[in-house]
Specification:
This protein has 19 helices and nine strands. Strand 1, helix 6 and strand 2 form a beta-alpha-beta unit. It is globular and about 80 Å long. The protein is of the alpha/beta class and 436 residues long. The longest helix has 30 residues, at 2-31. It has helices at 2-31, 38-48, 62-70, 86-89, 93-106, 123-136, 152-159, 182-186, 199-202, 222-226, 252-255, 275-280, 294-305, 313-323, 349-354, 372-383, 390-403, 409-412, 415-433, and strands at residues 112-118, 141-147, 168-173, 208-212, 216-218, 238-242, 266-274, 328-330, 358-360. Helix 3 (62-70) crosses helix 5 (93-106) and helix 16 (372-383) packs antiparallel against helix 17. Belongs to the glycosyltransferase 8 family.
Length: 436
């Protein structure tokens, strides 16, 4: 009798679970009926936004919905469903966890999407950035290169000669802005700079994207910054680094005439985006009580603040995230290390401890003698030939050049420029020895 009682109790439990699941699906279907207001869409959208790092929009099917909500949570797919965050998965976590496992099993090597905008004399700088991304990255890369028409053939000639080994694909795009306001956007800050604001609207089939300026150098695999997508909570849509670590030398907190994010603002030279979430989000703003979507908010922001902004599109992003701070994931300074982190004395503690992960040579420091430490890294990567021994062809010559810069503030901490690069070379050798 005791055995039968246990079986009956188990069946009763399964019946209750099935009943709860049925109610949850009914509630979900009612929520999705037309006629809901924008505020409700914004709240519901934040809960249902797709997980980062996949190349497909959420489908109507139960399996895809489960995968979209849960597959990129920081917990492992084998964790029990009651350990998954309730605010993300709700009552369906048992099924969603299973679907997330199935998605991971059937999509083992998704591409990482990287975008850059190149105009004027930025071709060489852009190619050097792409080279740095290729050298260490593990997963396949898809480059989205936005460039002036006259640069397309030159890009093709150079990139088609790269020994990709099936690791990289690229697509070239023209520079495009909304027709009715193209002139205003072209004049904002630098030529083509504001193109990045329209990437979520142009690359409609790309779920997640890493945008970088042309003057970026990757000193570790792109995979590592791409993994931050899996750390986003249910409200975060993008990740950037602070503009400054030290408020006493900060620009925004001393000079800005508009709202900005946090204490010192954010720098948009390295911007990781869940573009599915960006396209769905309704943004709070100081222009109207009605929340606006990405494509609706850009032009009104420009009209309101165009006389008060100095850094163009970066200022507009600061304004947007000032009003929507819950939507931003902030990563440490070594993921966007600029001259400001060393010319006034070292002020990026994370880089001092672990080295520089991504080098950002803004203000043209790769091409003049003002910051020879930055220029030495740029020249070393630009001159490296794919297939050469990284230790003898890259690391050792670079360290010799860096030692010559010790008369400068950045040169005094030259070891932070080579610490992570050394580790990346060692890790790459280890992967190759294992045949990966």
């Amino acid at each position: 009798m005791r055995r039968f009682a246990r079986v009956a109790l188990l069946c009763l439990g399964c019946g209750v679970c099935s009943l709860l699941y049925g109610f949850s699906q009914l509630a979900l279907s009612l929520e999705q009926e037309p006629g809901a207001g924008r505020e409700r869409q914004a709240r519901d959208g934040a809960r249902r936004q797709a997980g980062a790092g996949r190349d497909a929009a959420v489908s109507a099917g139960r399996g895809e919905a489960g995968a979209s909500r849960c597959k990129n949570l920081s917990v492992s797919f084998w964790n029990s469903y009651w350990m998954l965050p309730s605010d993300v998965c709700g009552m369906n976590c048992f099924w969603e966890a299973a679907f997330r496992y199935d998605y991971m099993r059937t999509h083992p090597s998704e591409k990482m999407h990287l975008a850059v905008v190149a105009c004027g004399e930025r071709l060489e700088e852009t190619v050097t950035m792409l080279r740095s991304a290729i050298i260490f990255s593990i997963k396949p890369l898809q480059f989205h290169i936005f460039a002036e028409d006259q640069l397309h053939e030159r890009f093709k000639d150079i990139l088609d000669d790269f020994p990709y080994e099936g690791k990289v694909n690229y697509t070239l795009y023209p520079i495009t802005f909304p027709t009715e306001s193209a002139t205003e956007w072209k004049k904002l800050f630098k030529p083509c700079a504001s193109q990045r604001l329209f990437l979520p609207l142009i690359l409609k089939n790309v779920d997640s994207l890493l945008y970088v300026d042309t003057d970026i150098l990757f000193l570790r695999p792109v995979d590592d910054i791409w993994s931050f997508l899996g750390k986003f909570n249910s409200t975060q849509i993008a990740a950037m680094a602070p503009e400054h670590e030290e408020p006493r030398i900060g620009w925004y907190n001393r000079f800005a005439r508009h709202p900005y994010y946090g204490v010192t603002g954010i720098n948009s030279g390295v911007m990781l985006m869940n573009m599915t979430r960006i396209r769905r989000k309704y943004f709070k703003n100081d222009m109207t009580p009605v929340r606006l979507q990405w494509g609706e908010i850009l032009m009104p922001l420009l009209k309101k603040y165009k006389l008060n902004i100095t850094w163009g599109d970066q200022d507009l992003l600061n304004i947007m995230f000032f009003h929507n701070p819950e939507s931003l994931y902030v990563f440490p300074c070594q993921w966007n290390y600029r001259p400001d982190h060393c010319i006034y004395g070292s002020n990026c503690k994370e880089a001092e401890e672990e080295g520089i992960f991504i080098l950002h040579g803004n203000r043209g420091v790769y091409h003049d003698e003002k910051q020879p430490t930055f220029r030495a890294v740029y020249e070393a990567i630009k001159n490296y030939s794919f297939g050469d021994d990284l230790v003898h062809s890259l690391l050792q010559p670079l360290e010799l050049e860096l030692r010559k810069t010790m008369h400068t503030y950045c040169g005094r901490v030259y070891k932070v420029f080579i610490k992570q690069l050394t580790k990346s070379v060692r890790d790459l050798h280890a992967r190759r020895s294992k045949g990966r």
